[in-house]
TrEMBL record:
GO terms for biological process: box C/D snoRNP assembly; rRNA processing. Residues 217-285 form the PIH1D1/2/3 CS-like domain. Involved in the assembly of C/D box small nucleolar ribonucleoprotein (snoRNP) particles. Recruits the SWI/SNF complex to the core promoter of rRNA genes and enhances pre-rRNA transcription. Mediates interaction of TELO2 with the R2TP complex which is necessary for the stability of MTOR and SMG1. Positively regulates the assembly and activity of the mTORC1 complex. Belongs to the PIH1 family. This is PIH1 domain-containing protein 1.
Amino acid sequence: MGDSNFLEVPDDSDAPFENMFRQARAELDDLFKSMSKAPEGIKSKTIKPDPGFCVKLKDKDGKKIFINLCHTPHLPEPKGISDEELLKILESEDPTSYRVPLSLGLPHEELDKSGIPCTAYDVIINGAFFDKIQQNDLFRNFVITVAIDGIEDKYGVNPSEDDYVILKNKLYLGVMPEHAVQDRSSPLISEVEGTVTEATGGGKFNVHLTRHTLPGQPDTLVARISLPGVKSANEVLLDVGEDRIVLQAERHSFDIFVPCLLNQDDSQAEFNVRHHVLTVMMPIKSSA
């Protein structure tokens, strides 16, 4: 397989796989991530999203927080799946494999209906997907959970996820600012097939490969590996080769060839201890 590169895999208990609804990553991931500031080399454009509905909740200190869920055609629509498929994903070892592109706006200070200062956060999703969640309680609750996790991860707030209310007569709290989103002309993520030459395990596990493309940057191959029973990164030995990924752990091992050449030196990995998911990010040199 050419040269090998053993990676240190840190535990990441605060990674974006927090609970059954928790999302992305912030990953390269995050397609579900905030796009209020575009990375270098990627053009951004200013949009004025449409208001959707307003969610009221409180942080752990009892202060009111409002989430304005907005929508725009300028964000990509997530993959269309059924209720049964979403439930299956949420109950799986890797509940964040379903990604929702969203943009988190900057927090803005507002007054609630009693004139008490509060903080509002704008969360923007695709317009067609918004129409779907309006008619579907399961997907709506999923998106609200994703939005709550997003503002928690990005802004350090500590909202109560179990006690929120969708306001009936208010679509938006405050005055909507303009939002900057990344201007993407081509798909960001494509599925990749790998060839597993050897795999063993005491329980079920799966490997999901995707290729992430950003303008002006090298493509990146992302492997998301579910490892039930593995409790710490110290139990994982990971070897990234030129065109191959080899993993060994107490209960699992596999050897997979990938259809591209990898930049081993710049590869990174992190292990989520809550959901037993290893994420490996590998810059691609060229097609094999």
